[in-house]
Amino acid sequence: MSPAVTRFAPAPTGYLHLGHVLNAIYVWDIARASGPDARVLLRIEDHDRSRSRQEYEAAILEDLQWLGFEPHGEPTRQSDRAAVYEDALASLRARGLTYVCECSRTEIGGGPYPGTCRDKDLSESSGRGVRVRMGATTEVFDDLRLGRQEQRPSEQCGDVLVRDRQGNWTYQFAVVADDLSQRVNLVVRGEDLLDSTGRQIQLGRLLGREVPPSFLHHELLMKTPAQKLSKSDGDTGVRVLRANGWRPSRVLGEAAFLAGLTAERRDIRIEELSSMMSSFSEVDI
């Protein structure tokens, strides 16, 4: 077993809300439960340059410190890692695994990408994206909370976009390259990202990662049965709770209660949280 290396990876496109607090609880405390040498990296996922804001990043860092979540080392930013992504793309391009795509989201619609540009042999230029050819494989993995999963990325999403028509690196590509280069071996995130796992495992293998990270997808905090909390909607912002006089222990307790980790609303000190994740103390990384 290797020491767990995991990450908390917010996008600076809004303020932290209780859903992010729940994710932080899971990330830090599963890391603590897995062993004393575990590390939590802080990665600012600002690949979307049109929506990321410096003021949101500053608030995220301040709120995490206020809550008591301390990462290992300085935060990294995807906006500083273009060379990592360029090298990863170059390795795929050299093996003929990429192609240029001029399709817009409107043209694609809501389904998987149908491969419209696969055989067009377009040249890279402004206003065109780059995709990776995904093989028709079934990706099988064991989620540490949900059990055995099987996914077919070629049917779910088609060929994955790695750089969009505006020149931005995509989430799916950047996180795989980051997790590989930062040696992340445990990914803890919400169930809304479960469907991304198979394609990320396949992308990682194409980039040379034979053994993927372990994955755990936890429950989401919902504001309605069909709608999760969202920072874009300003839901249950930590900043608002702080302004209303909430203490860190009350914020932690509220997130834990809403997720069903505690049976009643009560203040929880950050030191208490590790006991809630004791079932993950034997996580095999």
Number of domains: 1
Helix vs. strand class: alpha/beta
Measured between the Cα atoms of the first and last residue, the distance is 6 Å
Rough outline = globular
What fraction of residues sit in β-strands?
15-25%
Please describe the biggest sheet, giving its number of strands, its sense, and whether it closes into a barrel.
3 strands, parallel
The gyration radius over C-alpha positions equals 19 Å
Query: How many helices in DSSP terms?
Result: 9
- CATH topology assignment: Rossmann fold
CATH superfamily: HUPs
Assign the CATH class: Alpha Beta
User: Residue ranges: pLDDT <50 for 5 or more in a row?
Assistant: none
Helix amount: 25-40%
Strand element count: 12
Order of helices and strands: EHEHEHEHEEEHEHEHEEEHH
CATH architecture: 3-Layer(aba) Sandwich
Averaged pLDDT, please?
92
Major sheet: order of its strands?
Answer: 1-2-3
Topology:
Blueprint: E1 5-8, H1 18-34, E2 39-44, H2 54-67, E3 76-77, H3 82-94, E4 98-101, H4 105-108, E5 129-132, E6 139-143, E7 147-151, H5 153-156, E8 160-163, H6 171-181, E9 186-190, H7 197-206, E10 214-218, E11 222-224, E12 227-228, H8 238-243, H9 248-258
Parallel strand pairs: 1-2, 2-3, 9-10
Antiparallel strand pairs: 4-5, 5-8, 6-7, 11-12
What does this structure look like?
With 285 residues, the protein is an alpha/beta fold. It has a single domain (5-280), classed as Rossmann fold (3-Layer(aba) Sandwich). Helix content is 32%, strand content 17%. It is built from nine helices and twelve strands. It has helices at 18-34, 54-67, 82-94, 105-108, 153-156, 171-181, 197-206, 238-243, 248-258, and strands at residues 5-8, 39-44, 76-77, 98-101, 129-132, 139-143, 147-151, 160-163, 186-190, 214-218, 222-224, 227-228. It has a three-stranded parallel beta sheet. The termini are close together. The mean pLDDT is 92.
